[in-house]
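fyi for ur records
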Amino acid sequence: MLLASILSFLLTTILYCIHHATPADASVPFLEKNQYKLWAHYSPFYPVEPYHPPPRFCSITQVNLIQRHGARFPTSGSSVRIQASVEKLKSANMFIDPRIAFAANYTYDLGANDLVPFGATQSVEAGQTHFKRYGHLFKNDILPFVRSSSGERVVLSALNWTLGVATASKHTYNPPISVILSESLNDTLDDNMCPNAGSSDEQTGEWLDIYGPPIAARLNAWAPGANLTADDAFNLISLCPFDSVAHERFSPFCQLFTEDDFEGFAYSGDLDKYYGTGYGQPLGPVQGVGYINELLARLTGKPVQDNTQTNRTLDSSPETFPLNRTFYADFSHDNQMIAIYAAMGLFPQNAAPNPTGPNSRRTWRVGHMVPFSAQMITEKVQCGQKEYVRVLVGDAVQPLEFCGAGPNGMCELDKFVASQAYSRNNGDGDFEKCFS
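which gave:
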């Protein structure tokens, strides 16, 4: 594993240096259009709000970052479905609208599952940003402690983040990946330990039956004989973000869809995550409990207390779970980050998202929560003699009403710990339901 990591690091470093000499927002045309903010969990990361430091006379003493991997190709299952829909579109008798004429000569050339070069850049830039923001926490004898789930795109994202730190510090600090958690074993960075959890298929299917048919009808009118269905419409609209991030240009598929189409697509992502591992899934939040208990251990400097997803062998060793670091960086997946948000109590909803249509005032928007390279940062803050906790998602300070935070979003540390009773109680019996 060490040799493979070194080789991957070198390969990705070379890839970055060759292809990404300038920041992504300056060199990637599709980022010039705001449409990418409607791509749900396929959106590239963007700050939801500008970062604001803690109040004056307060100092950040510890940072806990959990970050999603960067932009990738479609998963293998999605790739098969997308290619089938592309072939149906290409089989049309003619292409009437000029916006769709490109399909006649379009060749699907995307891979499956793997990180794309733009996704590598995202993590490098995140590492650079975090060093510039939190550089006072970095010391040669106390480097960031970096962990990754074992999926290849996640490990590469972690490696690229460390490269970002190294380049931003002019190689004064070169943090290694210290732990890679196997996704076939206990892993707090992947949603792989609750076989009885349900899916969001019912809710996303109900919504697709509403918003998908009109899109399919319009495309069929532009391409007679294609006989596209609502499922095909979903597959083709998802090709817009995947084709764009893979080729770093605005995909021609994007021009086939209206803002309303993308709003419907984004809401499908909201439903998928809410009912997949979020509040709408009875066994969703419990999948984030292990990470929350690890976070509490780091914040309090006390050993991990958990009987859910944690690897107790690793978490009991100061070599593989130290409690003396000032910066912790974990790399994960979107579904797991949603579970962690729900376990903590972030993004509470007065009413569950309705599969028949969105509420425009909703706060559950996965494009803000888990885009490619999504970031949740938990800051430990010292103000005089008191310690506080502040949580940011996409750089937006979370209100933390559950622990009595004021307008600045800060909870006293002991009140934050007390607010996490669900996790400290190992999910109140929900974890056992994953297997019973």
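The longest helix spans residues 201-222. thats all i got for now
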